[in-house]
Amino acid sequence: MSYTISEVNGVKIYNLSAGKTLPQFLEEAKKKNASLKYNQDFRKRIELIQDFDFPVACNQVEITNDEQYIIATGVYAPTIKIYETQELSMKCLRGVDSEIVKFTILDDDYTKIAFAESDRNIEFHAQYGKHYKTRIPKFPRDITYNPFTCDLLISASCNEIYRISLEEGQFLKSFESAASDINTLHFNKQLNFLTSGGNGGILEIWDYRQRAKATSRIVNNGQDITHINFDSSGLVMGVGSEKGLVRLYDIRYDAPLIEIKHHYKMPINTIKFHEKTRNVLSSNERVIKVNNKDNGKVYTSIEPNSGINRFTIVPNSGLILVAQEEPRIGTYFLPQLDNAPKWCNFLENITEELEETQSTLVYDEFKFLSYEDLETLKATNLLGTPMLKPHLHGYLMHMKLYNKLKTKADVFNIQEYQKNEVAKKYEESNKSRLIAEPKKVKVNQEFLQDLKEKSNKGKKDIDPFFSLVEDDRFKNMFEDEKFVVNKNDEAYIRAHPSEKGRQVRQKLKDAEVEEIEAENKQLLGMEEDKAKKYELKQKKIQQKQLKNDKFEKIKLIRKEKKNKETFEKKIQKKQKRESEQSLPKFGGNRSFNKKFNKKK
């Protein structure tokens, strides 16, 4: 198998199950009659485990506690495959009568396994193969195992949790749930209790010391619970819902610690905890999201090309095995998550030497939209399609599609309308407000105008409605010439140094503006000259083209006339020849024939 490298959020993801398999390479080489020696894809391939696939799809893949064996189930026909990690190959293959819904490993290795099948059978396998089969009343949905009491627990499409004592070899009294259907089970080995999740968001905990229900809660806003899992401490619980919502709870508190949203609105099928990096991995049918366990921040995400059924993490490593809706079992390696497993430590050396073009996500042509924006554009039906890419807390949509939807929806934004109306009313009120213009005064008219400009700029220390002209205290300042403000006076300049600087800056600015305008005029003149020259050149080219066209036309007419004359001459010659051949001939006397023809 070849490999591909992608990078999401700065984390490299090595897809070791991409490309063609060895049989496909051999078949292609046979068809083309070519050697695989020079095939670069074949030379770069990485086949982690031989025959790591199924004819159609894989339903579930798990690794044993001793990390020596990988067990996988798939279709069609319903098959169980057991792989040995030390040999990197398949150890054995077993066939079953019906499709396996889920299985659980009863021992540290592959010697004891229980399978829940779609025909209501519970099948037990030992090292040598099938050991025993029994039947339950309803169709199974999940299966788990209590190693302390040797009880096998099965949830089904009813409100009962079936219990089979493997020590006594008999059914025990079932646990009755408040939920109509129980979708998922998980046994907490650290605290010795069973957790079940069902319809209506009903989460229940069963205490095995009393064989009774300890507590019951409605979580995830009443959405159906589809998966439950605990971390290594047994205190933090991950709960997945039918609409792509994952919440982490501390069993000592009611409120969730963090909330992770999968924007595809699809059921959560797997939740796993990576204790070394303190990350939580959760998946729906389309994507595996990796988030920080403490704050919920996105670490990275994996998006296979086909649907995801379940996934598992090889313990103490960054290798993820994915059961997909395709023949090949997905294998993804994240070096930044953790090291490679001991049985395939060669991956460390390979990833260091890999130099391939990384696939990067380009969002320049995309528009970021929240779920509320999609509702406004009436585009919620596009969720789960390639037209929307989940990104952060929203989605990415191509700009062309966004513009079409926006034009079609003709959205009426009430908030923008209200803002515009308020702005219009404010402008109208400003227009209607009467502002007293300063009267013409004898002296200091310029000074009065400056005061007016400052008041219009909103200076707080000057009241725009206070008339200095009418005030008796300042009246003489605008009537008596003794109070004339001379801006060129040395005393005024010393008292107002910024005013002088402002004038100097204004002069410099005016000079710069004049210089720029002169340059622009010069450039415009040059451009006009160039434009005129270009126009003259184009006119000459057009005139020359017209002359050439006229000459070609005359030449063509003469040629046609000549051809017509030649054709007419040929017709005349042909007619003359035919008329001569139609005259009668008398024997071999040529002179007589000529005379007869002349008389004719």
Describe this structure in words.
- With 600 residues, this protein is of the alpha+beta class.
- It folds into 3 domains: 49-353, YVTN repeat-like/Quinoprotein amine dehydrogenase (Methylamine Dehydrogenase, Chain H, 7 Propeller); 366-409, no CATH class; 498-577.
- It has 10 helices and 32 strands.
- The strands form 8 sheets. It has a 5-stranded antiparallel beta sheet, with no helix packed on it. Strands 3-4-5-6 form a 4-stranded antiparallel beta sheet, with no helix packed on it.
- The longest helix has 86 residues, at 497-582.
- The protein is flat, with a radius of gyration of 45 Å.
- The N and C termini lie far apart (101 Å).
- Mean pLDDT is 81; it is low at 355-361 and 459-465.
- Residues 471-499 form the NUC153 domain.
- WD repeats lie at residues 175-216.
- Keywords: Coiled coil, Nucleus, Repeat, WD repeat.
Specify the CATH homologous superfamily of the largest domain.
YVTN repeat-like/Quinoprotein amine dehydrogenase
Principal-axes geometry comes out as: flat
- Mean pLDDT metric: 81
Characterize the largest beta sheet: strand count, sense, and whether it forms a barrel.
Answer: 5 strands, antiparallel
Helix percent band: 25-40%
Short summary of the structure?
The chain is α+β, with helices and mostly antiparallel strands and 600 residues long. The chain has 3 domains: 49-353, Methylamine Dehydrogenase, Chain H, CATH 2.130.10.10; 366-409, no CATH class; 498-577. Strand 27 (308-313) and strand 28 form a beta hairpin.
